[in-house]
Design brief:
This is DNA damage-inducible protein I. Helices cover about 55% and strands about 0% of the residues. The chain is mainly α.
Length: about 20
Amino acid sequence: MRIEVTIAKTSPLPAGAIDAL
């Protein structure tokens, strides 16, 4: 699992938005 995905799951931002970065 990518760190970005982990952050997305623990933040109010949509997971897709972070994963797209």
